[in-house]
Amino acid sequence: MQIGLKPPEGAVVLFNGRDVSNWHQRNGEPATWTVEDEVMTVAKGDAITAETFQDAYIHLEFRTPDMPEATGQAKGNSGVYVQGRYEIQVLDSYGWEVPGLGDCGAIYNQYAPLVNACKPAMEWQSYDIIFRAARVDGAGKVVEPARMTVLQNGLVIQNNAVLQGPTGGPVDENEGQPGPLLLQDHGDAVQYRNVWLVHLPEKGSDAYEPH
Ligand code: MG
Fold first, then answer.
1. How many CB atoms lie within 10 A of CB 160?
2. For the segment 142-184, what is each residue's pLDDT rounded down to a tens digit?
């Protein structure tokens, strides 16, 4: 399973487990999220990494709070914004037979998850995200849209989804430019841990090396 997956060699550890000193809010102020036992908990304001990236493999773990009275978008809402532009929804969608465009694992309002891979509230879950950044021409026009493959708890929920531009509330619309990881404050005490990424080269070598 993906829970507890160790950062491989060369990974950039985005959450150090002790504090959020290398995360900030949208206004540039330091992030306010609390940290305890190597877990960060959503507080006022989104949390944004200082690190920015293009193509990347991103791993993180999250846990939604127990909110039995809440429903729909008010139940354990947060979100993982890749490059600060494309939100993979975090929500307590456990048990929904047919998850929709706003449910956990959806690329918000663009692609519902292929299957509902959610665990119940209070259980740790993982996202493994393989992201290919948008390619742009010299004028900044997108010539190849960004794409994402996402595994939730080891199950494929997004299969090379071709992104239709930024989702709602991006940090900017500068597709093709490096961007940060943003974890959303949607007012619910969602928790995160074990957050890291591996920068990926834009392509492999095209030289043939005989052996
Ligand atoms: Mg959200």
1. 11
2. 999 999 999 999 999 999 999 999 999 999 999 999 999 999 9
Strand residue runs (E) in 76-141: 78-82, 86-90, 125-132, 135-136
Q: Is the residue at 73 inside a domain? A: yes
Q: How many domains does the chain have?
A: 1
Does residue 211 fall inside a structural domain? no
Task: List, as ranges, residues with CB under 5 A of the ion ligand 1.
Answer: 77, 79, 186
Query: Which residue segment(s) compose the domain that 193 sits in?
Result: 12-199
Q: State the distance from the centre of ligand 1 to the C-alpha of 203, rounded, in angstroms.
A: 32
- CA 191 from chain centre, in angstroms, equals 13
pLDDT, residue 170, reads 98
Ligand 1 centroid distance, CA of 88 (Å): 8
199 Cα–ligand 1 center, Å: 25
How far does the centroid of ligand 1 lie from the alpha carbon of residue 138, in Å? 33
From the list 180, 199, 187, 157, the residue with the least C-alpha distance to 85 is: 180
Residue 211's pLDDT is what?
72
